[in-house]
Amino acid sequence: MNLHRRKSLRQVLRGGVAAQVLHWAGWTSLMMPSAMAGNQAEEALSDAVRTALSQALLQSGPPVPVLPTAQDRQQFDAWRNATSRTLSKWMDVAEDRQEFLNTLWYEARRAGLSLSLVLGLIEVESAFRKYAISSAGARGYMQVMPFWVHSIGDGNESALFQTQTQLRYGCIILRHMMERENGNLYFALGRYNGSRGQAAYPQAVLLAQKKWLQPVD
Prior knowledge:
There is one protein chain. The protein has helices at 9-14, 17-24, 47-56, 70-87, 94-111, 115-126, 147-151, 163-180, 185-193, 200-210. The chain is mostly helical and 217 residues long. Helix 5 (94-111) packs parallel to helix 8 and helix 8 (163-180) crosses helix 9 (185-193).
């Protein structure tokens, strides 16, 4: 059962998840190969879109999952425990998996994205390597291209190796791509990877997503 309905970027900024986030708000670069490393193409953004994306990066704070009810907390614990077991293939240390999954839940929900979709994308993009760098220069778990931090962020490229910053950029960019493609996930994934219209990347992500699917998704 979904805990949140999927929201557009503007809806996320206006309320819902954003309001809950406000309520809770209280390089060493390693050259590692990635499975299908990102090559996002820089596109011209309108002032309105650039402003919306920049605003979506704000509201810093610890990635505390928003769990207003006992049922929500139960579902989160079940999801994290099951996902952590699968993730142990890539991350050996339990504490690292817990921090990563807490952050992923927070940022995926904040952007109105499916948890399994984000996990599948990360598996394909970087195989869960925090310091992965592609031949095109894409960085981190979600293989974000550095031009994004200059276009909508503060210009600090090294922050893309920080877990919450990396996942926030990646989720916001993916949400933006989905809106650009009017909800067409196939084309949105291709655009995210810089391979729009080619089948290999979206098919790989959607196949990887299947192993991460859970009722809470």
